[in-house]
Description:
- The protein is mainly α.
- It has twelve helices and no strands.
- About 25% of the residues are buried.
Amino acid sequence: MTAAVLFGLGAGLGLWLVLTWAIPPQAMLQSRFADSTGTIGVAVAVIENSWAIALARPLLPGLRALGLPGRRLARDLRTMGRGADTHLATKIMLACAGLLTPFLVQGVLAVLGGPLGFEVPLVLALVSAAAGFIAPDLEVRGKATRARAQFRAALSAFLDLVWITLAGGSGVEAALLAAADVGRDGAFAQLRRALDNASLTRTAPWTTLQRLGEDLDIAELAELAASISLAGTEGAKVRASLAAKAAALRTHLVADAEAEAQAATERMALPVTLLFLGFLGFIAYPAVTQVLNGL
């Protein structure tokens, strides 16, 4: 009965995926606009894996219809510079690999003369398929968190450079462009791209910086854009404000690094505790065996 229910669910899911591939759902106006221009708002460069997308293309419309990836995960993918289609294709391939691996192992065991029952490979296939489907999301979230921390560290240096350039007598836009041209890592490349988009579209640079902060889910960048907009529109003096923001950002980064180091130290206590318990069991085993044999 359980096998029949699982086969029915699998057949229904496969039929639905085939129908969404044969008759794709109507895309929303927002997604059509994003497909025609490459992005909505600031152009964040993403890398697409063409061969992975080609292999999983029939199943991508079905996952898109389910709303995958979510809004939060989409921001994480933009932070990493990975395309949404590549991520979905990776999820599909890992899920298919997890689904087929137990049956391949069962076939090898059958050839060697020791086959398993049908229920065990089926359960293992479902569990491994679910794990393969979820694992890319967990990887993206962890890497996106580290990428945001690196972006904040680069942003503190960017603020110092903007403050120094403003102190030298440059204007706001010239200071932003000069500071963005100094760095060569990914964060400075994204800042340069946002400022270049502002020049090409004839919009205010703080507007594109604010959109970039929203796209990457970095609140400090949006706050920087708000402070710079006061200097650009109201003529406010923001040099002291930028210096204070840079110092506060560095203090926050140091506090996060200390908290992460303390958490790593606490995690290291668990293996030592398990090793100590194993050592006690190794020592106490002969005595316990002698007591049990004497009863």
